[in-house]
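Known limitations

Files may contain more than one protein. Parsers should not assume a single record per file. Below, a two-record file is shown to illustrate correct handling: read the sequence, read the token line, then continue until end of file.
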Amino acid sequence: MATADPRIEALFREYPGHPYKKWQGAHWRLVSLVELGVTQADDRILCAVDSVLTWLLNPRRKTPRVAGRHRQCASKDGNALLVCCRLGMQADPRVIELATRLTAWQWPDGGWNCDPRPPVTHSSFHESLPPLRGLAAFGGFPKAVARAADFFLRHRMYRSESIGDVIDPEWLQLHWPAYWHYDVLQGLRAITEAGLAGDKRIRDARDHIQAQRGADGKWRANGHRYWRLTGASNVELVDWGDAADVLTAQCAEVLRAAR
């Protein structure tokens, strides 16, 4: 696969480690690749996909069920499902299994959570975002998508459902890559992908994104940077900088869809 984008070339570098190693493992690289527009699976991508699916579908992988709820880190499966769907692999039995399992793990409030504590009954925004995006891309479980989308919409994307306070101010900032972290922009992308960009409950979140546009017409990362270029952990292969090109395209897309 020929490309002039040095970021894509960097993400193709050989890495023999675990697929989930942050942020150089195949799991994270594949998400970045499809977000940069890669949709064709060459041998390198297929090899990376195989390693991720083998890891996630390992029969020895535990899925704890506590107090009637599956306590699984569904963001892993959701990201993998999104990647596979972007690569046109919806008919692959392994991909169908990913989607089916996500629907089985869905909590009563529409989301997902890996918190093992029995009293926890509220889904996690972080763990629920990738499954929503993956299932929306897969297209075979509309009821699960609607339930997951409503989980975010009931919270107006970033507020407490009960008292209306901002849940986490960091969610109002822009990040790239966000990896498994939730923020309002990535939430709006998920809602748009679910076909609900016209829902009035996203209005405040949409206006907040609009207000972050710079004088030059671009949006830039202004929140916590989850990656570094050197160190013992959380090391990236790509210097994303302020990710202005990626974030400007994403913000423009969600605002255009909400008109």
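...continuing to the second record:
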Amino acid sequence: MKFLAGDIGGTKTVLALYDADQNLVTPTVEATYPSASYTSLEAIVQTFFSQQKLTGADFAAGTFGVAGPVVAGRAAITNLPWIIDERQMSETLALPKVTLINDLVAIAGAVPHLPAADLVTIHEGKAAATGPIAVVAPGTGLGEAYLIHDGTHYRAYPSEGGHADFGPNSATETELLQFLQKQFSTGQTPHISWERVCSGSGIPNLYAFLKEQGKV
């Protein structure tokens, strides 16, 4: 029984084939595609199928972690002009079942299972055994999610915290906020989120600010 998994981001899309008869932890096949070079997720999956000489009928189901909120089986991808719909994907690709989940929910769900070798302590502290866990993932944008322990195991939940207001905490950060407000002004005070600062797309903004300040 084969399963298709995908990590769909603004920069790249990673697709992987898992075989329940072998190992559901290690993919049998994995391939990466530049997202912006394709008109839709379906086009990428069709390319993957063609390369692997497979069809949707070869899979039991497909699950895709997407960069954006998922509402009623539909998602508008952040930083891409894509609308993804579970039912439409299932019909187009002949996949028996398609499920969309927020990409950070997918990542967060794996966090409790990470081995110690994959963890790095940035700031020493005393963690509560079943306390909440925050997941912050700067990429093309700024993804955030969190985990709550339900008494038996952790459950992952989505958050669009990357779109929360950037809150300056120093004179320099206040100047940065004012700089970005000018940069993104359209006649009214623009919304400056944390994603404008802490993400791949935010790095050029920081560079432009520091350059204006004569610090680079």
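Parsers that stop after the first record will miss the second one. For reference, the second record is described as follows. Helices lie at 41-52, 86-93, 103-110, 171-183, 203-212.
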